[in-house]
């Protein structure tokens, strides 16, 4: 765990208003940029980032091709710490587990869920941010589902009011508008891209920095057909807050949202075909 302002770790966790739980070093800056920037600007909010995996398996730039796994993981951890400092996060926690652990169904995954539940209890956040559970990256889905399991494993009083799953390796075209949360970048795309560029090990063969900036700008324009753009850049998340209620089955909830998208698509073409 790293505390950017050098303060007491437990106090930093307790000050958390927004807890972000992601799979990889760089996901906080690339996918959760809206809450990260908003918290960095607001003295009344504090963002705690939790990165579950060690990021060992990513595509590497040629200059890092010969690093052994330990050295590469250390590079990624140092990049994440530098990004957290620049973003003025309250804290960043690197669980550093292999991807296979959180993607398993056994005791290794249970240990991740337990660690996340302990962090939720220590932070008692107002909002939890994680991945879209319909993401196309299996590790993102594994972390989003582990986050939901962790939240449902803590007493109701320790749970946040809101849970948001931010788009990543699939956009949110599948989610009808009433389920979509807007993350206004507030004219700060360049600041968000600067944070992402702390992850230099990820930005050679893949241009994630340019890709997310393009997505945010596209989201802002394609958000509404008959209205002028009211933001220059928007991140999007799916509102998963209903999953904080133990009476709601998470898989059935997701299936219902996807089904409502299918119904919308079919209703739009019916009558013409
Ligand atoms: Zn990722």
Describe the structure.
By secondary structure, this protein is α/β, with parallel strands linked by helices. The chain has one domain: Rossmann fold (3-Layer(aba) Sandwich), CATH 3.40.50.10320. The chain contains ten helices and seven strands. It has helices spanning 9-14, 27-31, 33-41, 69-86, 99-103, 107-123, 138-152, 189-196, 208-222, 250-269; strands at residues 18-22, 47-53, 91-97, 127-131, 162-166, 180-184, 234-239. Strands 3-2-1-4-5-7-6 form a seven-stranded mixed β-sheet, sandwiched between helices. Helix 8 runs antiparallel to helix 9 (208-222). The chain is globular. The mean pLDDT is 96. Zinc ion (ZN) binds next to loops.
> What's the alpha carbon Rg, rounded to whole Å?
18 Å
* Spatial arrangement of strands, main beta sheet: 3-2-1-4-5-7-6
The separation of the N and C termini measures 57 Å
Query: What oligomeric state best describes the polypeptide chains here?
Result: single chain
Average predicted local confidence, pLDDT: 96
């Amino acid at each position: 765990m790293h505390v950017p302002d050098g303060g007491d770790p437990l106090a930093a966790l307790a000050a958390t208003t927004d807890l972000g739980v992601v799979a990889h070093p760089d996901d906080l800056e690339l996918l959760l940029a809206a809450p990260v920037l908003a918290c960095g600007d607001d003295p009344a909010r504090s963002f705690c980032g939790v990165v579950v995996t060690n990021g060992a398996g990513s595509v590497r730039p040629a200059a890092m091709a010969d690093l052994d796994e330990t050295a590469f993981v250390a590079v990624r951890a140092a990049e994440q710490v530098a990004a957290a400092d620049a973003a003025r996060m309250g804290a960043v926690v690197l669980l550093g587990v292999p991807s296979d652990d959180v993607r398993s169904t056994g005791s290794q995954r249970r240990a991740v869920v337990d660690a996340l539940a302990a962090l939720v209890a220590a932070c008692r956040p107002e909002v939890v941010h994680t991945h879209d559970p319909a993401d196309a990256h299996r590790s993102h889905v594994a972390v989003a589902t582990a986050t939901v399991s962790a939240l449902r494993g803590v007493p109701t009083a320790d749970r946040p009011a809101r849970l948001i799953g931010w788009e990543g390796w699939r956009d949110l075209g599948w989610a009808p508008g009433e389920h979509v949360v807007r993350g206004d970048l507030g004219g700060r795309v360049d600041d968000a891209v600067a944070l992402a560029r702390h992850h230099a090990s990820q930005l050679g063969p893949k241009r994630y920095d340019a890709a997310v900036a393009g997505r945010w700008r596209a989201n802002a324009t394609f958000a509404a057909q008959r209205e002028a753009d009211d933001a220059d850049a928007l991140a999007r998340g799916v509102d998963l807050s209903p999953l904080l209620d133990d009476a709601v089955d998470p898989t059935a909830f997701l299936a219902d949202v996807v089904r409502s998208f299918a119904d919308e698509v079919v209703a739009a073409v019916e009558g013409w075909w």
